[in-house]
Amino acid sequence: ERLSIPAISTGDIFRANVAGATELGTQAKAYMDKGEYVPDSITNAMVADRIAQADCENGFLLDGYPRTTAQVGELDSMLKDSGLALDVVEITADAEAVVARLLKRAGEQGRADDTEPVIRRRLEVYAESTAPLADLYAERDLLVQVDGMGEIDVVTGRIMEALASRGITGS
Ligand code: AMP
Predict the structure, then answer these.
(1) Is ligand 1 within 6 A of the CB of residue 148?
(2) Nearest CA to ligand 1 atom 4
(3) Is 75 in the pocket of ligand 1 (CB under 6 A)?
(4) How many whole angstroms separate alpha carbon 29 and alpha carbon 32?
(5) What angle do CA 35, 113, 124 make, to 5 degrees?
(6) Ligand 1 in reach of 25 Cβ (< 6 A)
(7) pLDDT by residue, tens only, the chain of 171 residues
(8) pTM of the model
(9) Which of 8, 14, 63, 98 to mutate to test the pocket of ligand 1 (most atoms within 8 A of CB)?
(10) Which residues pair with 59 in a beta bridge?
């Protein structure tokens, strides 16, 4: 909202498809419930389809994508076609703080994958498959890191500052 661009969460799109019992939802659910990543082929096709829509023409915010090196490569090709530039924000937080936050969210939202064993598996998968992508983006000079420890409004302020440092500001 602040940047007047659509926010696209791959997790939200998967959850909407699970709720709507679509073919995509059925495929994704088996992985999501275990805390594993949905296969790249499915995820990449879904993102390509979403960012090809007219509201993404002047930019968009991706939340939860890319998460694997194959997704990084696919995103590069998608952006090449669109002529848009990329900036990457990595929000860091202590693992135990993340577990506590997601257990709190479980009580509020009832997400199927917010159980302690699945949360811990998601953190492992993140460490294995996604954390290394930060180095890759840092080498390309596209990365800003934000300390995610603290209250929501404080962390939000840090994210807006980090974006401003990359020349991205709201209108
Ligand atoms: P999130 O809402 O971002 O926490 O994502 C919830 C779940 O959706 C993840 O644990 C994965 O199973 C799946 N998912 C979301 N984004 C991706 C992605 N980029 N690649 C693979 N799986 C994903």
Answers:
(1) no
(2) 11
(3) no
(4) 5
(5) 35
(6) no
(7) 999 999 999 999 999 999 999 999 999 999 999 999 999 999 999 999 999 999 999 999 999 999 999 999 999 999 998 889 999 999 999 999 999 999 999 999 999 999 999 999 999 999 999 999 999 999 999 999 999 999 999 999 999 999 999 999 986
(8) 0.96
(9) 14
(10) none
